[in-house]
Design a protein that fits this description.
Elements: E1 10-15, H1 18-23, E2 30-34, H2 45-57, E3 62-65, H3 71-87, E4 93-96, H4 99-108, E5 113-116, H5 138-145, H6 152-160, E6 163-169, E7 183-187, E8 189-194, E9 225-227, E10 236-239, E11 242-246, E12 259-264
Parallel strand pairs: 1-2, 1-12, 2-3, 3-4, 4-5, 5-6, 6-7, 7-12
Antiparallel strand pairs: 8-11, 9-10, 10-11
């Protein structure tokens, strides 16, 4: 980790594959394992179990990251969580990015710690806000720096159904929070937009139809694409079905923002 952080900030590292987890040798406080953006890239339940066992062996808390899903994907997530919970340590945490998964998880495992994933925390992530943010009145700028889930009534609702923390992206325009639920901040990549219509699916084929879902061969594991446009103040990174931007500058005072954890992403998810 390159950032000088106060001891109260937990440092986590995110992995999407068991191979990447096994080869990581930099100290950290917690492991995130899974995938947020594509059910096709979810680790198998066997890999989830092995990752959890590896964390237990190394005395590191374990967070299972789950994506937004279809009905078929929901069954895969349910199977992975059931497998994990058979042998899960008490400090296991589930990061949820789908409201259906959230409802099921709270019903089936009401005591498990849930983190509301960044697909559900509804920040204003579009980098084009940098084109106008300095011209906005203070109240409008504050709106673009906040997350919808920090509204008092929404925080109370999520607490009631077992959510223990919010997962946030490091916005280019800055972040504004006053109290609320404790949060994690992802670095250095922030997601902008995601879809089931993956442009990289069969994208290296000459007859590719960009409007079809098609058959996934996990082409995204072989290609990283940079997107540049005059209207976009920073490059976008296309990884499979999701666009990201990079922001290496952390907020000045994480504690004041009730950010108690940094989630470091060694590579694009």
């Amino acid at each position: 980790m390159e950032h000088a952080l106060k001891q109260s900030i937990e440092q986590a590292v995110m992995f999407s594959t068991l191979e990447a987890l096994r080869t990581w040798d930099t100290p950290c406080d917690r492991i995130y394992f899974g995938h947020e953006f594509c059910q096709r890239l979810m680790p198998s339940s066997e890999d989830v179990q092995q990752a959890s066992a590896l964390c237990t062996e190394n005395k590191r808390p374990f967070s299972l990251v789950t994506p937004f899903v279809t009905n078929a994907g929901l069954e895969l997530v349910q199977h992975s969580i059931r497998t994990l919970m058979e042998h899960a340590p008490e400090d296991v945490e589930i990061v949820v990015n789908d409201l259906g998964v959230l409802h099921w998880l709270h019903r089936e495992y009401p005591t498990v710690a849930i983190a509301l994933g960044r697909l559900l925390t509804k920040q204003k992530r579009g980098p084009r806000i940098l084109r106008i943010v300095d011209r906005l009145p203070p109240s409008a700028r504050a709106h673009f720096e906040r997350s919808n889930v920090d509204a008092t009534h929404l925080t109370a609702f999520f607490r009631k159904i077992g959510v223990k923390r919010f997962e946030l992206d490091n916005l280019l325009q800055g972040i504004r929070r006053e109290g609320g639920m404790q949060a994690s901040l992802y670095t250095p990549y922030a997601y902008v937009s995601t879809t089931r219509l993956c442009l990289l699916m069969s994208g290296d084929q000459p007859d590719k139809n960009l409007r079809s879902i098609g058959t996934c061969h996990k082409e995204c594991q072989h290609y990283n694409i940079a997107l540049n446009h005059a209207d976009m103040p920073v490059p976008l990174h296309l990884q499979g079905n999701t666009q990201f931007f990079r922001n290496d500058k952390l907020p000045d005072d994480l504690v004041a923002l009730n950010i108690t954890r940094l989630v470091h992403q060694p590579s694009l998810p």
